[in-house]
Amino acid sequence: MADITKGVRAFTVGTVISRVFGLLRESVFAFLYGAGRSTDAFVAAFRIPNLLRDLFAETALSAAFVPILTAERQKSKEQQNLLASNVFNILLIVVGLIVALGIVLVPYLVKLIAFGFGDIPNKQALTASLAAIMFPFLLFVALAAWAMGYLNTEREFFFPSVAPAFFNIISIAIPLLSYTHFLRQGIDPIYAMAYGVLIGGLMQFLIQVPILFSKGFHYKLYVNFKDPSLHRILVLFVPVALGLAASRINVAVDTFLISFLEERSMTWLNYAFRIMHLPLGLFGIAVGTVALPTISKYVVEEKFDEAKSTFFDSLQLVFFLTITTSIILAFLSQPITRLIYERGRFTSFDTYATTQALILYIIGVPFIAGIRNVAAVFYAYRDAKTPMYASFISVGLHVIISLGFMRIIGFRAFPLATTIASFVNLAILMRKLPSKIGQFELSLLVDYFVRLVIAAIIAGFAAILLHRLLINFLDYSFATRIMNLGISGITASLVCYVVCLMLGVTEAKDYIRRLFRK
Length: 518
What we know:
Low-confidence stretches: none
Largest sheet: none
Order of helices and strands: HHHHHHHHHHHHHHHHHHHHH
Number of strands: 0
Shape: globular
Helix content: over 70%
Radius of gyration: 22 Å
Distance between the termini: 19 Å
Strand content: under 5%
Mean pLDDT: 83
């Protein structure tokens, strides 16, 4: 069994840097723009290129590209570089054409996914204008994902994971530097955010280019749509893309439905979603990203027992990391939301609404992370259809729950639907998993999951009690609030570790040792 913790540690460190700048970006966004008409328009506009992002960027491209590129690497470096160049050039052509078409059709796309904005003067027009500016972001992020896939096959995980930090830095700098300029010109300063996204996306790709060449990549002007290796990628890519298309349609449906709810609903959900992605990105995506090339390598070499043991090690690791951090964050959700967002035009009521959405989102993080890791096994075995079918079912369930509850609990229906649908998706994949890796004791995994939940809930209570106690002894400055959350979080982590050992979760000691050793 391969020890993937070194790669997870490198990916997590890079992601921590990226996520810190991401939260800073959201904090600046909240400070400058608050929650209102313009922020709703920006969020809806950014979702339009993001509807296609998973298809041509991180998820689908990596799932299809990495296993095949790993196989080509086993043959020779020249074969690896030829396939990588072919995929790069085809991405430029295909995604470039989609971007051009998207810019032309953007007014109609806005009317389709944000129909409810039509009741508010100029809101659809603003959304369309912002979306047209940001549409090339799709091409840049697709190329960045291509670079990440190549580097992952070379066992390089830090630089691809830290690249989004440069996107966030640019997205912070441009609004801060140009906000006043736009105001003086009589232009809505939300446009500064759109230009920040555009230039930041380009930087996310360019920052990886020097590392690509240092790892032996040599670009070739080669385009071959009949390449057998490209066909193998497409065999994996199409079902993954269809499954993700279903989830992206789900996002479009959500956007359409949310546009009919009270103003600011879309912005509250977006802010909550950003915080939820902290534990998901740091741990859930990290483990899945590192596990995929490792398991793919074992499958290519027909070392199926090694592939199975590596998978279960990665799944237990991702549950250990995401269950503990997510539950502790849920208990501390209100002070965390207040710390990150509540300043400038972002009010205490915005904090209250965002916190409610965050709690419902964050409960589903272990399930979403589990999906990514279990799906990696199917992709390594060149089976993308099973995850696709599971995605279809979960998306349908998500829409049903959202429609059923949105008039009862408002915007809260959407994160609730996300969590429930993610659980069902994971359950389906686990049910089908024996067909790939053979029989296993599911009850042992469930028992492990439950014990982690118990330990994390006890730690969560410890965190919030300590936080409230420290409030009585500390002032309300920004620095002391950070210190309070830091002390509460670290204490909760120690409590969680001790309770895990008391409950017999011996894996906790092993994972901590492996994650922190040199």
